[in-house]
Amino acid sequence: MNTIHINSDKCILCGTCEEVCVRRIFSLAENALTLTEPESCILCGHCKAACPEDAIEIPALDPSEFLPVPQKDEIPSPAMLMNLFRVRRSTRIYKDMPVEREKLEQIIQAARFAPTGGNLQALRYVVVHTPDKMKAVRGLTIKALTQYGKTLEKAMEKAPEDQKASMTGNRMMNYLQMFKRAEADYEKGMDRILWDAPALIVTHVSNLVENPGVDVGLAGMQMALMAESLGLGSCFIGLLIMAATYSRELRSELMIPENHKTVTSLVCGYPDITYQTLVGRNKEKVRWL
């Protein structure tokens, strides 16, 4: 199957596709538009979206997703968008009620349409949404962090005094204390890692993908904002990623492939707390050139 096809009956030779194509695979002559290197197409769909006659066909992409661009009044205003950014907080208090699968699917769709470098779309997702699975993941996360904490403790015992006093040493000590508190709370029936959230979304990516951090951050934030718009609270859980890095058992429970790494995790659920104000932050630090 061809990667891309030009419908010559519709094409009016306007050259828009040639102009917008980042890979420069179109060549416009006086009476014809040809494809020079169709194998170089990254399936971004810019050409099809910009074509005024819909003359570009991309078999690998679902044509039904190329909907008309919304009218201006259907797009959030800058003030509305800023309010959405600032109303979203990390939620750690949740109601004891499940999140509907339809809403979790909408969150995944928000991630799917996030910008992605080179249109690689390399991110993969695991959604944990049943009580039994959440309980299993919670227990394995605590177990992994406890074991990692013991490893850190042994390393700290052997470390020179100057290293213990360094920033790295202080950070390790903070982790140790955090792991111990989390373990103690867990034994008392309190979840200080996943915060008793009813759902968890874990993002993973192939080890072969270089520098996926930007894609991960963009997809993660779109998930968090979609959750907010659906009336859900959310919280990124860095400690789960740390636990998954050191625990094959946890990765197995999450069905993460052996050649993949976990890169972010987001818990979500219906918040059991109401905040009265928007988020405040330190003043921006910007150099204008």
Label this structure with key terms.
single chain; 289 residues; Alpha-Beta Plaits; NADH Oxidase; 2 domains; four-stranded antiparallel β-sheet; 13% strand
In words, what does this structure look like?
The protein is α+β, with helices and mostly antiparallel strands. It has two domains: 5-65, Alpha-Beta Plaits, CATH 3.30.70; 73-289, NADH Oxidase, CATH 3.40.109.10. 40% of the residues lie in helices and 13% in strands. It has helices at 16-20, 46-50, 78-87, 101-112, 131-158, 161-164, 167-187, 213-229, 238-246, 248-253; strands at residues 5-6, 26-28, 33-35, 56-57, 124-128, 199-206, 233-236, 260-269. The strands form three sheets. A four-stranded antiparallel sheet has the order 5-6-8-7. Strands 1-4 form a two-stranded antiparallel sheet. The chain has a two-stranded antiparallel sheet with strand order 2-3. Helix 5 (131-158) packs across helix 7. The model has no long low-confidence stretch (mean pLDDT 94).
Could you give a quick summary of the protein structure above?
40% of the residues lie in helices and 13% in strands. It has 289 residues and is of the alpha+beta class.
Q: How many E-type strands?
A: 8
Q: How does the helix and strand content classify structurally?
A: alpha+beta
The mean pLDDT is 94
CATH C-level label of the largest domain: Alpha Beta
Note the gap between the termini: 49 Å
Strand adjacency order, main sheet: 5-6-8-7
Helical element count? 10
Overall tally of domains: 2
